[in-house]
Design a protein that fits this description.
With about 450 residues, the protein is an alpha+beta fold. About 25% of the residues lie in helices and about 25% in strands. The protein is globular. It comes from Dactylosporangium fulvum.
Length: about 450
């Protein structure tokens, strides 16, 4: 069977099994390219999904923002190692914040230290980004010092957008268009709802009792564009993937080859399998080094971008239901096996650093409320989202007790996905377990001091 036919069979089967109304999937491998689209933009008003259908790409947007920022770094207009306050002198943090310690690099490596998921909707006016930063940032708790343990941070992307606006004197969207979209000739990537309304675009769905129901609301705000608000097509995402993969583009590279590669090296290491570049999330699968980012917009759209630079393989997936997340891991495993002969291998169990009771407890920060329990000589993790509307089908998966096993000291993998770490316990300076990093977010152990300082 040809790669094109095999990909088609995979996508159609996975979309059917997971009740995904619309999907657009593409793979580049060397000089070859394969695309498959399936389904409809909306179950209420169905239009066929094609290579040019627009999908929100969520947090993949962060890599676009970082590329624009690095073009400014190359021109000497930004310095990753200077304090953000050097460029934003009126920047205010919470009472525990260390303003002078937050450097520009921290905005792109999830190490700014403040609570990262609370980005307000400040509308679509010209001051939306500046208002979000100046009004909300002083209210956010500083979980750990800047440059400390990484924790996924959407507010940092908003600060980065404000920084780009201040340095250039232009809106963030204009900076992005001039420095990334236009040079790469990405004509199907947009920021504003009015740019998207008259083009064919996907509508997000929740899946209830096996039926996909459209949600007729726009899910992002202008303050979130830099961190998760771009909307793009499979055509553009494949062109972007090819550029980020090996530097090839029909247009003009927005940054030099050296800078593009530097963005994909780890500046922060969480464990042996996971690091962070300049907005890229770096994962290991056996001997393979993956440069990745995914996106999830309000549990209604799920996207994936994976690069395997050493093998010239790129994978793109866009879907309009949260159940698209269930297809992502299957797609990655399928593509690595089909194109590289790489099979998924479970990580080897390892002993915990201390007794299991040392990890048991409740961990609470922001939207996450996690209970870690010990039963039959094994830990289980129970995750709940507080104040967040989650697709019922995905909520059932998320809130199932997740048995985990240690793969390194303080690092655990889920039995249901044993090929990669799922979480990591982080210790306070006194050696006690003070945090759980789950979904890349640091979650504080209940009863511990949120302002406690980390090393």
């Amino acid at each position: 069977m040809t790669p094109q036919a095999a990909l088609r069979d995979f996508v159609f089967d996975a979309a059917e099994r997971h009740n995904i109304p619309g999907a657009a999937v593409g793979i580049v491998h060397g000089a070859d390219e394969y695309t498959v689209t399936r389904g409809v933009t909306s179950t209420r008003d169905p239009l066929r999904v094609d290579d040019h259908t627009l999908f929100p790409i969520g947090s993949i947007s962060k890599t676009f923002t970082a590329t624009a920022a690095m073009s400014l770094v190359e021109q000497g207009l930004l310095d990753l190692d200077l304090p953000v306050a050097r460029y934003l002198p009126t920047l205010r943090l919470s009472e525990h914040g260390e303003r002078a310690s937050v450097v520009v690099r921290d905005l792109f490596t999830h190490t700014a230290g403040w609570l990262g998921d609370d980005v307000p909707d400040t509308g679509w006016g010209d001051e939306a980004v500046s208002r979000a930063v100046t009004e909300q940032l002083p209210r956010l708790p500083q979980l750990v010092p800047p440059g400390g343990p990484p924790s996924y941070n959407n507010m940092s992307a908003a600060v980065a957008a404000y920084l780009l606006e201040t340095v250039t004197g232009r809106s963030f969207e204009e900076v992005l268009r001039r420095r990334v979209l236009a040079p790469l000739r990405l004509a199907e990537t947009f920021s504003f709802p009015q740019e998207i309304a008259h083009r064919r675009h996907a509508v997000g769905h929740v899946v209830v009792a096996g039926s996909a129901r459209p949600v007729m609301e726009w899910q992002t705000s202008r303050a979130m564009v830099a961190g998760g608000g771009l909307v793009s097509s499979l055509t553009d995402q494949l062109a972007y993937a090819r550029y980020q993969l090996d530097g090839n583009t029909a247009g003009t590279p927005p940054v030099s080859q050296a800078t593009r590669l530097a963005m994909q090296r780890p500046y922060v290491r969480m464990n042996d399998w996971f690091g962070i570049g300049i907005s890229w999330l770096l994962r290991s699968r056996g001997e393979l080094a993956l440069v990745t980012h995914s996106g999830n917009v309000a549990g209604l759209y799920v996207s994936l971008l994976v690069l395997v630079p050493g093998e010239r393989l790129g994978i793109v997936a866009l879907t309009n239901a949260a159940t698209g997340a269930l297809m992502q891991e299957e797609l990655l495993a399928w593509a690595l096996r089909r194109f590289l002969g790489h099979d998924v291998v479970a990580l080897e169990p390892a002993g915990s650093t201390g007794p299991l009771d040392e990890y048991v407890g409740r961990y609470v920060t922001g939207e996450l409320d996690i209970e870690v329990r010990s039963t039959a000589d094994q830990l289980t993790v129970n995750v709940k989202y507080v104040g967040v509307v989650v697709d019922p089908a995905v909520a059932r998966e998320i809130e199932k007790p997740t048995p985990v096993f240690f793969v390194a000291p303080d690092v655990v993998a889920a039995e249901s996905a044993p090929w990669q770490p799922a979480g990591e316990f982080v210790r306070d300076p006194d050696g006690s377990v003070g945090w759980l990093r789950w979904g890349m977010r640091l979650v504080r152990r209940h009863g511990a001091d949120v302002g406690a300082r980390q090393q």
